[in-house]
């Protein structure tokens, strides 16, 4: 019994370490990928001075952030000011424990599923963790003792809470079709066809709401540089700012992973190994996010809320009703 426990713990640690390493590496190079891609879109070079083709720019940026002075504003709530940046990064990374990266493999003489922690209520755990991430924005702005930061955090909380509702409703048809809330079961249910073929409306709503949850253009109102300096993280510097920055890019990868799991068949695909298929599908979403950043203007706050409550919410509800009606008619 003791050997079995130690072996299971070792496998869990190995899987967690590999996923953490891959996700953080992808997030780091996503910064370089975005700067290069935006440069191409805007007819300029992007980073090209540090290393071949700018490949060592990440190292230069990391050293710069490490050497920057870590400032705390006068009158700030020091405990919450220190905690806020890590909340978003931690909750986003925690969701990756639910994502199946492939089928089963043989390791140490036992069958090991390529998922860290499968659970029957995986969708609910994902939604709960994404809700906790709201506190990072709220506490970061409030604890800074800066009116611009506070306005940014209020905007961010209202935006994230609002768009969580249509995002949650967009997933209802998915687990209606799969008959389970487990992310592994949802991927298995797409063995014959990806759900995006029968739920394109749900996929579109999920993508748009994920874009809003990520606070990316055209939904970057919580940061609004020309209005709020930098919004909720105005007073952050050094590695604390880097945690906010890292959380945004990890969230981009997470959105890609969830989009792949819920609508694109997850790791399933011909010829290539499962993890390779999942990685290819994941990269579609960050590319689209970067494309929208280089293309679209920022929405006004009233436009953002109007779009959520008067367009996405009714559309998501109608999609749930239609899906239920069609399934009942077919059965």
What is the topology?
Blueprint: H1 2-41, H2 57-67, H3 78-95, E1 104-107, E2 110-113, H4 122-132, H5 134-143, H6 147-178, H7 183-188, H8 200-213, H9 225-228, H10 238-263, H11 274-293, H12 301-330
Antiparallel strand pairs: 1-2
Number of helices: 12
Distance between the termini: 46 Å
Spell out the helices and strands N to C: HHHEEHHHHHHHHH
Structural domain count:
1
Mean pLDDT score, rounded?
Answer: 85
Shape: globular
Which percent band covers the strand fraction? under 5%
State Rg.
Answer: 21 Å
Alpha-beta content class:
mainly alpha
Regions with little confidence, pLDDT below 50 for 5+ residues = none
Organism: Pseudodesulfovibrio hydrargyri
Family: Belongs to the complex I subunit 1 family.
Protein name: NADH-quinone oxidoreductase subunit H
Subunit structure: NDH-1 is composed of 14 different subunits. Subunits NuoA, H, J, K, L, M, N constitute the membrane sector of the complex.
Features:
oxidoreductase activity, acting on NAD(P)H, quinone or similar compound as acceptor; two-stranded antiparallel ribbon; 2 strands; 331 residues; translocase; mainly alpha; quinone binding; quinone; NADH_UbQ_OxRdtase_su1/FPO; single chain
Explain what this protein looks like in three dimensions.
The chain is mainly alpha-helical. The protein has one domain. It is 67% helix and 2% strand. It has twelve helices and two strands; from the N terminus they run αααββααααααααα. The chain has a two-stranded antiparallel sheet with strand order 1-2. Helix 2 (57-67) packs across helix 10 (238-263) and helix 6 packs antiparallel against helix 8 (200-213). It is globular. The termini are far apart. Its main location: membrane. It is a multi-pass membrane protein. Belongs to the complex I subunit 1 family. It holds the Pfam family NADHdh. InterPro entries: NADH_UbQ_OxRdtase_su1/FPO, NADH_UbQ_OxRdtase_su1_CS.
